Amino acid sequence: MLRSMTSNVPLNELGEFLKRRRAELSPRTVGLPETNAPRRVAGLRREEVAQLASISTDYYTRLEQGRMQASTPVLDVLARVLHLDDDQRAYLFQLAGKTAVRTRRRSRQRVQPQLQRVLDDLTATPAIVQGRRGDILAWNALAAALVTDFSRIPEKHRNYPRIQFTDPAMRTLYADWEASAQISVAQLRMEAAKYPDDPRLIELVGELSMRDKQFAEWWGEHRVAARTVGTKTLNHPVVGELVLDWDTLTANTDPDQHLTVWTAAPGSPTHDRLRILASWAADQKLSASEPIG
């Protein structure tokens, strides 16, 4: 009897530890929008932690209540979501009776040299290179003029799905934003199947699920899509409507790097407008580089 009463002590301590840690965090700390609505609890809510960790609220609640053992992958994600330092992370794993093994981090992706050369040579065609999770690794000047100035976005947030859901300008740029956003979610689902334990992908899904109800709904539908070809219509603020065909090429040296190009048939209105946009972008760059006074 004594054994059964004391056997849950570590789990109860783990639950208390999780409560204390989430109480120390604010929505802003973890990248969530803050509102003026009063909060009944200090720090993050249980459902916010659960969504950021891509687990159910019921699962997380059971962890805090000491009624469930946590798996090693879940502990690893919770350590990242709750911004635990090395000592706190080790303590979390000790309370759960798990060995704290550091997840092997994949090296930071860098654009393949041959793809960079292609980008540099494409002056009349918008193009970007995306890596894992839709991270934007490189782009040319016309892609920046077409979509957004990627250089102004912090590298850790330079991710195409994230930009689509968090930048309000994207919802007016895309003539059918919902269709394009759904494709991005489906492509991200495909990435999750390939790398289910990728901490950065889990964090991205958790963040977007909290920030956007449509993302959470579409993510729950489990639709998948590969990066292939398609057509999209953009309402560009400078040159107007652009009907673009997009195609994706994969680097043989790194299958997780994809070159996406947007093209239009020669002689079409969009083809002419792309050339106007390229000229406008060059003028903007020249004006920015001219000395003042």
TrEMBL record:
<dbReference type="InterPro" id="IPR041413">
    <property type="entry name" value="MLTR_LBD"/>
</dbReference>
<dbReference type="GO" id="GO:0003677">
    <property type="term" value="F:DNA binding"/>
</dbReference>
<dbReference type="InterPro" id="IPR001387">
    <property type="entry name" value="Cro/C1-type_HTH"/>
</dbReference>
<dbReference type="Pfam" id="PF13560">
    <property type="entry name" value="HTH_31"/>
</dbReference>
<feature type="domain" description="HTH cro/C1-type">
    <location>
        <begin position="39"/>
        <end position="89"/>
    </location>
</feature>
<dbReference type="Pfam" id="PF17765">
    <property type="entry name" value="MLTR_LBD"/>
</dbReference>
<protein>
    <submittedName>
        <fullName>Helix-turn-helix domain-containing protein</fullName>
    </submittedName>
</protein>
<dbReference type="InterPro" id="IPR010982">
    <property type="entry name" value="Lambda_DNA-bd_dom_sf"/>
</dbReference>
